[in-house]
């Protein structure tokens, strides 16, 4: 007997709906790869950051253990294990981790931009004597004579291709001024949070470049 529902408008099958609602193998693979990559990104973060991260202890321990492994094959296996632990997280736990990492990246970009601004100010000090007058006007507690000597020595270092000792000291003075200004701003805002380590990482890279 013909099926009266065959070809009828509005015919639905809950059996087929349930089948189609399941994630495809491709989608499951994509989700797995994304969690594996997220775990790898956490392994590459500083240990203090990982320790402060809001996540289950077993996942955190797997990440910290991976950071301790230097052997290539051992690290590869541990990274796979980290990916497995990441797949045990709930969507909410994953969302918290993603938001935290995005916050770190935003802070890192802001710190890097601030340090680039300090570099530009140092270049102005070397290029234009008026820049020192402006700086002393902003920070009258600075030793103007010492800064003039440093600027003169830094110019000589550049001209004679000598190690950038004075050049680097000028940057450190500017960096200290910026750090004090930031601390004062945080105190005024009532923020007592820990400083991020990204600024120090950038300064290390900066000094390596100056030695080239």
Largest sheet: none
CATH class of the largest domain: Mainly Alpha
CATH homology superfamily of the largest domain: PSPTO4464-like domains
The arrangement of helices and strands along the chain is: HHHHHHHHHH
Number of domains: 2
Helix content class: over 70%
How many DSSP helices? 10
Give the arrangement of secondary structure elements:
Elements: H1 14-21, H2 25-43, H3 47-52, H4 57-68, H5 72-86, H6 91-127, H7 129-138, H8 144-160, H9 165-189, H10 198-210
Helix pairs in contact: 2-4, 2-5, 4-5, 6-7, 6-9, 6-10, 8-9
What keywords describe this structure?
212 residues, mainly alpha, Diphtheria Toxin Repressor, domain 2
Structure description:
- This protein has 212 residues and is mainly alpha-helical.
- It folds into two domains: 23-89, Diphtheria Toxin Repressor, domain 2 (Orthogonal Bundle); 107-210, Diphtheria Toxin Repressor, domain 2.
- The chain is built from ten helices and no strands.
- The model is unreliable at 7-11 and 192-212 (pLDDT under 50).
């Amino acid at each position: 007997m013909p099926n009266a529902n065959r070809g009828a408008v509005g015919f639905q099958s809950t059996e087929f709906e349930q089948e189609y609602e399941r994630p495809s193998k491709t989608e499951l693979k994509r989700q797995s790869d994304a969690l594996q990559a997220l775990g790898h990104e956490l392994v590459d973060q500083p240990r203090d950051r990982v320790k402060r991260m809001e996540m289950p202890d077993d996942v955190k321990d797997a990440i910290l253990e991976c950071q301790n492994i230097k052997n290539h094959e051992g690290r590869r296996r541990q990274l796979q294990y980290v990916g497995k632990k990441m797949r045990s997280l709930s969507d909410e736990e994953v969302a918290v981790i993603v938001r935290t990492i995005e916050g770190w990246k935003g802070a890192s970009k802001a710190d890097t931009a601030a340090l680039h601004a300090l570099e530009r100010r140092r270049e102005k000090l070397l290029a234009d004597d008026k820049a020192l007058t402006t700086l002393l006007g902003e920070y009258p507690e600075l030793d103007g004579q010492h800064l003039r000597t440093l600027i003169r020595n830094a110019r000589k270092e550049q001209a004679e291709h000598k190690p950038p000792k004075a050049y680097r000291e000028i940057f450190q003075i500017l960096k200290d001024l910026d750090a004090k200004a930031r601390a004062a701003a945080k105190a005024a805002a009532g923020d007592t949070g820990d400083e991020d380590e990204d600024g120090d990482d950038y300064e290390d890279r900066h000094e390596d470049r100056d030695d080239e």
